Amino acid sequence: MVALTALLLVAIVQLALALHVRNTLIMCASEGARVAARAGGSSADGRARARQLITASLGEALSREIAVGRSTTAGFSTIEVVVTAPLPVVGLFGPAGGLRVTGRAFAEGQP
């Protein structure tokens, strides 16, 4: 009974960690998109900001794959920052590319 309770507790803690990592990556990707979308901002600025935030909050291992691109949403130009990271299954370790999040922001200077 104690072993089952301990296993359940560990599973709940791991789920909470996975959700924390996901939410943190979404926040970092969104901030990177906002930096890139500013007037005078560039894709490199957005990528650098997202990488800086991810490294500071979760570690360098999760900030390796960051892509920045432009798209159109409802006729408006948007900046997308896509972060691909390992899905944390055991601690922060897990299968590469298992977690993919996107942050978006409207580009400034549109009519």
Describe, in short, the structure shown.
This protein has helices spanning 2-37, 43-57; strands at residues 65-73, 76-85, 99-106. By secondary structure, it is α+β, with helices and mostly antiparallel strands.
Describe this structure in words.
The chain is of the alpha+beta class and 111 residues long. It is built from 2 helices and 3 strands; from the N terminus they run H-H-E-E-E. A 3-stranded antiparallel sheet has the order 1-2-3. The mean pLDDT is 92.
Characteristics:
3 strands; 2 helices; alpha+beta; 111 residues
Write the layout of secondary structure elements.
Blueprint lengths: L1 H36 L5 H15 L7 E9 L2 E10 L13 E8 L5
Antiparallel strand pairs: 1-2, 2-3
Strand content: 15-25%
Mean pLDDT: 92
Strand order of the largest sheet: 1-2-3
Distance between the termini: 65 Å
Number of helices: 2
Quaternary organisation of the protein chains: single chain
**Outline:** elongated
Radius of gyration: 17 Å
Q: Kindly state the percentage of residues in helix.
A: 40-55%
Order of helices and strands, N to C? HHEEE
Poorly predicted sequence stretches spanning 5 or more consecutive residues: none
Number of strands: 3
Largest sheet: 3 strands, antiparallel
Structural class: alpha+beta
